[in-house]
Here is the input.
Amino acid sequence: MRKLHTSLLVSALAVAAVSAPALLGSQAVAANYAASIYSDGDVYMRNYVNSLMSYAKENGDRLVVNYANEDLAQEMNQLELAVVRGAEALIVNPITTSSGAYAIELACSNGELPVIFINRKPSDELLKSYVNAYYVGSDPSESGRYQVDIINQYLQAHPEADRNADGEIGYLLLQGEKGVPDTVMRTLSLESGMEASPITFKQLAKVSADWKFTEASRVTSDFALRNNGLDNLELIVANNDDMALGALDYLQSQGYNTGNPDKFIPIVGIDGLDRAVKAVEEGTLIGTVKNDFDTQARIAFKIAALAAEGKSVDKTTLGAFLYNGNEVSVPYLKITK
Ligand code: BGC
Here is the structure.
């Protein structure tokens, strides 16, 4: 058995725990699971964690959630500590694919613990390399395509959106964290969908705002400064909702998207966060694409429970289809007014 780096175990853990029910029947023993989340500053992942916790609670199990603060050493320490503390399965939202490999190495040398990757897909090779590895996520290309559908539909109904009447829709693309599959694939499918569209689009800028509201607000304001204001900006597409809402916040501070039809710049996001859905209802965003964290969390938790008990994880036991034998993809959903 490989030796654990126990010297690294002293770590600053941000631990949130759903504790075991105070009184369990004499037979019932609460299971003990651990989740490692790449950052605590990610709004979408916070929602995801709330769902994971509620499924653990519903099951009477203990789930310890660690946030790795985008720091690989912390992520590894937290995973090691979880194993030492007797976690029966690891739910991992890895910072990078290489940290995914570490989770597998650790689980493999500690009684073949199940590892359920969520939201950030490690390489296919890695997923195939371990019999107790799973992935629960969604197909990021689908969300980019859905954004194009929402945009095409809106622009076809609103030709006045070409405010400078140059026959092209000038847009700003706000990207998520660099190199993450969701950023790469959402962007690729959006750009190729735009190329295939009967509408002509012109990318004015493509900037990473790291999935974050404040960063998106800042880069949108920066865009306005560099481009003599917002007159030529006719569309904002964001790889997620938090960034779409950050851009909206800046636009509103400049008198846009507050009710004056001459000062409206369509914005579309991804995730279906409550605040974004509300903004769609209010007409300040034109749409979002729901990235169903609650269903993903339910499935991830169920896999953890089945696999930890040594039960088969299949369509019947899980109630969801597994492709490649160990991956589940939850469909996206378009949300417009
Ligand atoms: C979500 C983003 C989130 C990211 C974290 C994506 O699937 O759409 O909001 O920041 O996952 O990895």
Q: What stands out?
A: The domain at 6-137+293-330 is CATH 3.40.50.2300 (Rossmann fold). The longest helix spans residues 140-157. The first strand starts at residue 15 and ends at 18.
